[in-house]
Specification:
By secondary structure, the protein is of the alpha/beta class. The protein is built from three helices and seven strands. Bound molecules: zinc ion.
Length: about 220
């Protein structure tokens, strides 16, 4: 559950009172803007084959497939076979433990790591988000799916947490794994995608008009 360093621009104003329709106030951008693409290429680590781990691997694949399907319903996502072609790599491994502020090491089942790259495509240099999403196979299947749903949300640009445990992007998971995106998750993504983003655009070009804008 790693977030990028908070940029200077945060989300919009919080909704006043009552239950908010989204959690935009929790979302942070990179210093360049929101790390969004108009089209994502995703690679999922394949099963290694037979052996005693085979059923664990197929269980993991099934769970992360279902999590990715929830996002594919909302975003243009293509599965690719070559990891080097992917903006986002989904990896079957337990994230390393991380030190908390009190010095203790905390284990987690998932993590999304964002790196900003300059890449050359069609002869032009562009900024691109590059993501490694680590999902541990050592959980129940529903928990793997819920972890993947949450970490993929970070990967696709939702760098922040909902205060509501019912949401897929909850800061603190509730007792039951959240397997589907809620209306608030979707509304926050819709709000995010209305922001112009320099990612994927040729460097030095004027900022695009919106999510679909092309210079
Ligand atoms: Zn998180």
């Amino acid at each position: 559950m790693q977030s990028p360093a908070p940029g200077p621009s945060a989300g919009g104003p919080a909704a006043a009172g009552g239950t908010a329709a989204d959690y935009r106030q929790a979302i942070r951008f990179t210093p360049w803007g929101p790390p969004l693409l108009t089209h994502w290429c995703v690679w999922i680590e394949p099963a290694s084959g037979a052996g005693p781990q085979a059923w664990l691997e197929s269980r993991w694949l099934s769970a992360v497939d279902q999590a990715l399907a929830s996002w594919t319903a909302l975003l243009p996502i293509t599965r690719v076979d070559e990891p080097e072609r992917a903006h986002l790599q989904l990896l079957r491994r337990r994230p390393p433990r991380r030190a908390e502020a009190n010095g203790r090491l905390r284990a987690s089942h998932g993590r999304a790591e964002l790196t900003v790259l300059e890449v050359q495509r069609q002869g032009r240099w562009r900024l691109e988000p590059s993501l490694r999403v680590l999902i541990s196979p050592d959980q129940r299947q529903e928990a793997i799916q819920a972890t993947a749903l949450h970490e993929l949300g970070h990967g696709f640009g939702l760098w922040g947490h909902s205060p509501d445990a019912a949401d897929a992007m909850a800061a603190v998971p509730g007792a039951r794994p959240v397997l589907q995106l809620t209306a608030r998750d979707r509304a926050t993504l819709d709000w995010l995608r209305r922001h112009p983003s320099p990612f994927g655009q040729p460097l030095g070009s004027p900022p695009p008009a919106g999510a679909d804008g092309r210079p």
